[in-house]
Amino acid sequence: MNAPPAAALPRVGFAPQVRADLVAGVFRASGRVHIGGVLADEAALRLYQCLTREVPWQEVTGDARGHHELPASGDPESAQARDALLSSAEREAGYGFAYRYRNFPMLDHYEAGRHRELYVMRLLEFLNSGPFIDFARLATGCSRISFADAQATLYGPGDFLTCHDDAVAGKQRHAAYVLSLTPEWRADWGGLLAFPDQGGHLHEAFCPSFNALNLLRVPTPHLVTQVSSFARAGRYSITGWLRG
User: Fold this and answer.
1) Which of 1, 127, 210, 242 registers the highest number of CB atoms within 10 A of its CB?
2) Which CATH number applies to 6-57+105-243: 2.60.120.620, 3.55.10.10, 1.25.40.850, 2.60.40.420?
3) Residue 172 has what pLDDT?
4) Which positions of the chain have pLDDT values less than 70?
5) Dist CA 48 CA 44 (whole Å)
6) pTM of the predicted model, to two decimals?
């Protein structure tokens, strides 16, 4: 599908009702916040269209050996390598950090000059604009935020992200964000952004929704629960960190 002419694209920006001062109060009290209706409706719809029709997804896993891009299963050798990576992630998930889902590394592609025509790149530009960085600093109370990285993600049946807190030495991650762009979802399909307490109980969870921004302080333990085999839609989001 060809992208429409640039002049026809809606501008990515905040919806009029979004107020950083109100967000800041909730974030300061709990270290996380869910902001519904965060973007103008036309921009959110166009982002969803881009994610479902235009983004060239790749399947990825992660385990104790690192991040892996899954090969296409077009021949027996690549299918065997793919199965091995999936099995490794499943084993690691039983007791450590692991993940599997589809992604599109937006910042990597943008910096390399690839896929800049995609509408999701207009969101990346907005996330690094003055208005958004000012919002992020006020909302989180962190004046050291200077840029946002980003990846688009798609979780389907069997996909997951086990518990972690996003703290990585040298990365200067001050907050994490998830822009949820999933118009149809049920809590019993899984895919919840969940927050365990010190006892291992889930203290709170955000269900995938449409045009909602979730912010959380780094470090904050969190996970994405495994998407069920009977989920009837994909879990679409754009996620990353607000960094120094």
Assistant:
1) 242
2) 2.60.120.620
3) 97
4) 1-7
5) 6
6) 0.94
